[in-house]
Amino acid sequence: MINDDNAGLSGVDVDELIKAIHGGATLKTLNGISDEVMDELHNMAYAFYQNEKLDEAIALYRFLYIYDFYNAEYAMGIGAILQLKKQYDKAIDFYALAYALSRHDYRPMFYAGECNLMLGKLIQAKECFKIVKEESDEKSLTDKAEIYLNVINERCGDFKSDEEMKNVHGNE
């Protein structure tokens, strides 16, 4: 049992709070925020993104993700903005989260492939695009992945590492 004189927790059943947290509760749930409010905020964040107001968009997507870390679309939104801001390593991290949360949505894997490509990590990019091509049911996505794979294969062949490829091709 936790001491009842915790500062700032007056009126809160701490045991129930801890039980909810252990059960995977989100801040959205704990604060009673409706799906409608979250959807409205998501629509605002996406509108900011579409209008290239990236600072406003990422602030809202981060808020949404903090309040509901199970929603893959919020992690995707953050990843997309970071990709536009050329923060590719960070974008890859958020795409990995989105992919883990939505297992059968291969968009995050595809976009992670693009980020790896921009970082010059061709082997990782190739693996991402290969997964998309082999696993996704979305034809437009698999077609794009196949184009990337063809270009990478034409340029690099079947190297096992980016280092091996650089040793053969140099800094063309």
UniProtKB/TrEMBL annotation:
Q: Which family does it belong to?
A: Belongs to the LcrH/SycD chaperone family.
Q: What is this protein called?
A: CesD/SycD/LcrH family type III secretion system chaperone
Q: Per UniProt, which keywords does this protein have? A: Chaperone
Judging by the UniProt lineage, the source's domain of life is Bacteria
* Pfam families registered for this protein in UniProt: TPR_3
